[in-house]
Amino acid sequence: MYYSPDLPCAAFVGSHLVASGPFAEVVHEVKRHHDENPNDMILIFDHKESRPIEVDLRGSMEDVYARLEQQKKPLPPKAKVKKPGRPKLGVVSKEVTLLPKHWEWLTQQRGGASVTLRRLVGEAMKAADPMAAQRSAQQSTYRLMTAVAGDMPNYEDAIRALFAAEEDEFVNIIADWPKGLREHIMQISAVVFDPSLAPSTEESDSK
């Protein structure tokens, strides 16, 4: 699987944070650490879902990056290369029937009709399930904690506070955990305790 060089992620050896930041930079630090400590088991996770990322660290740094680059999917022979400027959103074209006054209003909005429609649908989806972002952040944090913090003191109490969204208790429980681990956990769990921090649909569309 190909990962963007800018994908936010973090790497751990046990509960020790080795690196955090864009994927390309994290891989560089992971490779350096591996060369100096070949017996360490290093785990890399993406920030959003805390899913593990496997990287083949054999050979030189150039070898590692070359293999990652080879994981890009080539375009099909007859595929047309998209012109720059349009975000890669996986947009599907379908018919939308509106009254003239609706089209007039849409075209006057920032970004035009398509962007406005996507934003409105996204807001409606969020309103229908306002806690979806919070649950997603809870699951992501839980996956990370299970993988690298299972041996930490009061781990089970921390998990209970996480799913109860009790921020003060959660912060107090993990206060004595390693600094890098603690800071990363607080970063990926921020939406759990403040759902308003979830990125808006408009921000997601711009990425």
List the helices and strands and how they pair.
Blueprint: E1 8-13, E2 16-22, H1 23-36, E3 42-46, E4 52-53, H2 61-70, H3 100-107, H4 112-128, H5 132-148, H6 155-163, H7 167-173, H8 179-188, H9 190-193, H10 201-205
Antiparallel strand pairs: 1-2, 1-3, 3-4
Helix pairs in contact: 3-4, 5-6, 6-7
Q: What oligomerization state is this entry in?
A: single chain
Strand percentage lies at 5-15%
Sequence of secondary-structure elements: EEHEEHHHHHHHHH
Give the tally of β-strands.
Answer: 4
What's the Cα radius of gyration? 21 Å
Low-confidence segments: none
Mean pLDDT: 86
Distance between the termini: 20 Å
- From the spread of the alpha carbons, the general shape counts as flat
Helix content: 40-55%
Strand arrangement across the biggest beta sheet: 2-1-3-4
Largest sheet: 4 strands, antiparallel
What class do helices, strands and sheet pairing give?
alpha+beta
Number of helices: 10
Care to give the gist of this entry?
The chain has 207 residues and is an alpha+beta fold. The chain has ten helices and four strands; from the N terminus they run E-E-H-E-E-H-H-H-H-H-H-H-H-H.
Please explain how this structure is put together.
It comes from Maritalea mobilis. InterPro entries: DUF2239. With 207 residues, the protein is of the alpha+beta class. Among the domains are: 8-70, no CATH class; 132-197, no CATH class. 49% of the residues lie in helices and 10% in strands. The chain has 10 helices and 4 strands; from the N terminus they run ββαββααααααααα. The protein has helices at residues 23-36, 61-70, 100-107, 112-128, 132-148, 155-163, 167-173, 179-188, 190-193, 201-205; strands at 8-13, 16-22, 42-46, 52-53. A 4-stranded antiparallel β-sheet has the order 2-1-3-4, with helices on both faces. Strand 3 (42-46) and strand 4 form a beta hairpin. Helix 3 packs across helix 4 and helix 6 packs antiparallel against helix 7 (167-173). The longest helix has 17 residues, at 112-128. It is flat and about 65 Å long. The mean pLDDT is 86.
